[in-house]
TrEMBL record:
UniProt lineage: Bacteria, Bacillati, Actinomycetota, Actinomycetes, Propionibacteriales
Domain annotation CdaR GGDEF-like: ranges: 191-291
Family named by the database record: Belongs to the CdaR family.
Pfam families in the record: GGDEF_2 (PF17853), HTH_30 (PF13556)
Source superkingdom: Bacteria
Name under which the protein is recorded: PucR family transcriptional regulator
Length: 411
């Protein structure tokens, strides 16, 4: 690439190299600091609603950060070549195919502001000589701003390439319109999708964390379709790492087979929305599934299959992870860190309407064992189950979905 400014003096170059080496070790924390604000600045509801795309955006942000830092370790203060690798190209194709046009420039402005503050603080701590500080800031600002401009150009070019090469864009864009709440005539949608909408639908999201495991994702999708005997299935490639699926029939779809398929397929996660009827059911079930996926990703849960109907309350409680952790601690106290069997017994007891016999049957345990566990769990809990069963059950559900939420939000 053409260099647009003189190389820094040797002392300034060494300072930049040392600073970048130090920040490279903190790249995860730095990327986390600007990823969410930059994502929100892109101002696209469809992007924000899809946890798989959010993760790809997070990966892109971290890759940009590491690219600039490592390049400045090798060539301090010089112009940095943007890197648009296969994963980034796939992400751009996914955005284009779904008609999502995020404000990348707005995201970069926010990321630059936050990143520059970190860089400025490190420079001030490292450069005790005023003249050295001025040169380091001057040349690194040129490099950083030019990198942002070059990266935006590369993203625009990748978007144009993706737009030319996407043959399925029309169908996927129609699904995106329906899912986002746009008014689409049912007969038109059915004709273009080849899928009947005047039925009962269950929306699913299946996804993987690593794009290298896409074969496992495709196997799971094939398994879901194969076991949906007597029902119709619509599959959309939502992103490189996720698939949207709708299963429909004349009655409410039973999704137990989906749990079995996911359990048998390595690395795949799934969330099911509540079933609904017609176009609105198609839309609402899908929105449930997206919300459930975002919840699982947000909490870092390792749960393989999630029914959104079971976790809707937890979704509302955990929009702020720190607040959710405090809620669990204030409600359960020592029980939050006690034996998991105690918490499971107490939660099952509440869910079974305070019926020990039913709870024992659900837990495949002796009635006396369940009674002892419930009694001990209630002793440990700050809020007693007879005083506020709703709070106790909610806190236990949060902890069941995110076992580390207390440890990661303490202090």
């Amino acid at each position: 690439m053409e260099e647009l400014w003189p190389a820094p003096a040797p002392e300034a170059a060494e300072a930049i190299r040392s600073l970048c080496q130090r920040l490279l070790a903190e790249s995860d924390a730095l990327a986390e600091a600007f990823t969410r604000p930059a994502l929100e600045a892109q101002d696209d509801p469809a992007l924000l609603a899809d946890a798989s795309l959010v993760e790809e955006d997070r990966h892109l942000n971290r890759s940009d950060l590491v690219q600039w830092l490592t390049s400045n370790i090798q060539h301090p203060g010089r112009r940095v070549e943007p890197y648009v690798g296969p994963r980034t190209a796939a992400y751009i194709r996914d955005l284009v195919s779904r008609g999502i046009e995020p404000n990348f420039a707005g995201g970069w402005r926010v990321a630059l502001a936050i990143g520059w503050r970190w860089w400025l603080e490190e420079c001030v701590k490292y450069c005790t000589d005023a003249a050295l500080l001025v040169e380091v800031l001057d040349v690194s600002a040129k490099s950083l701003v030019q990198y942002a401009l070059d990266s935006l150009t590369a993203l625009r070019e990748a978007s144009m390439v993706a737009a030319v090469g996407n043959a399925d864009a029309e169908a996927i864009a129609l699904i995106q319109l329906i899912a986002s709440g746009a008014t689409v005539p049912e007969d038109v949608a059915e004709a273009r999708l080849g899928y009947r909408l005047a039925r009962h639908h269950a929306g699913l999201v299946l996804w993987i964390e690593d794009p290298q495991q896409v074969d496992a994702l495709d196997q799971a999708v094939a398994g879901v379709r194969a076991t949906s005997v007597g029902r119709s299935a619509l599959v959309a490639r939502a992103s490189a790492t996720s698939r949207w699926i709708w299963i429909s029939g004349t009655d409410t779809p039973d999704l137990h087979h989906v749990q079995k398929v996911v359990a048998a397929t390595e690395a795949v996660r799934a969330v099911a929305g509540r079933a609904g009827h017609g176009l609105e059911g198609f839309r609402a079930s899908h929105q449930d599934a997206l919300a459930g996926q975002a919840l699982v990703v947000r909490l870092g849960s390792d749960r393989r299959f999630t029914d959104y109907a079971d976790v809707e309350l937890i979704d509302a409680l955990t929009k702020d992870r720190a607040s959710a952790g405090r809620f669990v601690t204030r409600t359960l106290g020592p029980l939050a860190e006690a034996d998991e069997a105690l918490r499971e017994a107490l939660l099952t007891y509440v869910q079974c309407g305070f019926n020990t016999t039913r709870a024992a049957a659900n837990l495949y345990a002796h009635r006396n064992t369940v009674e002892r566990r419930v009694s001990r769990a209630n002793e440990l809990s700050l809020v007693k189950v007879e005083e506020n069963p709703a709070h106790v059950a909610a806190a236990l559900l949060v902890l069941a979905l995110a076992p580390d939420i207390v440890a990661t939000t303490s202090g």
